[in-house]
């Protein structure tokens, strides 16, 4: 099974980079990246130390319901090239030893029992296991330590 990793859409990143409010109606918070490994959810690379970045509350869902989790993410403050949707593992998913992988149905609701801390080297294997269930529409990759949204995984 082929999968693809999908980053935050460019229109959303550009809106934040232009000062549009986040999911809570707050303006993006401008910070300077130190050597902490901050990950841009649009280009899916590590923001270089000394570069400006934005901290925003992001909700990677269209609808507002109980399952539409919102959380903090970082985006390059300046325009960056979006990762888009590609089959290659993005650099940000090599920046941590493990991630939380969760499956969602076509109704954008979590499929209970699918969430698991997964070693970074096993993401593709876990994705194949989850996509074997026809009820799974897509996956979220989240920080295993802070639950922050990283990227989406889709069937190719």
TrEMBL record:
Pfam families per UniProt: DUF1203
InterPro entries cross-referenced by the UniProt entry: DUF1203
UniProt name for this protein: DUF1203 domain-containing protein
Organism: Roseovarius aestuarii
